Amino acid sequence: MSATDRTTRRYAQTAVQKAALIVGIVFLLVGIAGFIPGLTSNVDRIVFVGHGSEALLLGVFQVSILHNIVHLLFGVVGLWAATSFAASRNFLIWGGAVYALLWLYGLLVPVDSAANFVPMNDADDWLHLGLAVGMILLGLLLGRRQAVTGTARA
pTM (2 decimals)? Predict the structure, then answer.
């Protein structure tokens, strides 16, 4: 690898950067879809925060305005993270850790509790587990090669 290649940042160049980009795009699409009638049922009964939101993305996943904003923010962070190897790896691993915590939170907090402010239903809980496992594995597996060779760039 030449000195120019090592110092020039390329957007979504490595596998882990591409994974962060794809995950970011998916989060952006999900965040937008949460506001679109047809993709989200009962969108007219969406609330900003709380378990009382009756809006269901794809008729399954309970969403609120806050929930959709969080998806949009995760998407923006994923797009930004794709600018570097380290940021992409960190986004996937730590973002996956956040989703693991959300999964545990969803298991421990009753659906109709005031503490369920995001809101989340059972479908959300299991999706969060899948996201946690998937993101962490992507970060660890795709982030290994460059990290092991010591050529990772921030």
Answer: 0.84
Q: Per residue in 17-35, pLDDT tens?
A: 999 999 999 999 999 999 9
- Residue 7: pLDDT above 80? no
Contact 65, 47 (CB under 8 A): yes
DSSP H or E run through 41:
strand 40-41
Tokens of residue 77, six digits: 């962070």
pLDDT digits (tens, 9 = 90+) for 83-108: 999 999 999 999 999 999 999 998 99
Query: Whose CA is closest to 106, among 118, 117, 120?
Result: 120
Q: What angle do CA 99, 20, 142 make, to 5 degrees?
A: 95
C-alpha span between 123 and 9 (Å, rounded): 39
Measured at the CA of 134, the angle between CA 124 and CA 23, to 5 degrees, comes to 85
Put the strands of the sheet holding 40-41 in their side by side order.
40-41, 56-57, 61-62
Domain boundaries, the chain: 13-149
CB neighbour class for 49 (10 Å; exposed up to 12, middle 13-18, buried from 19)? middle
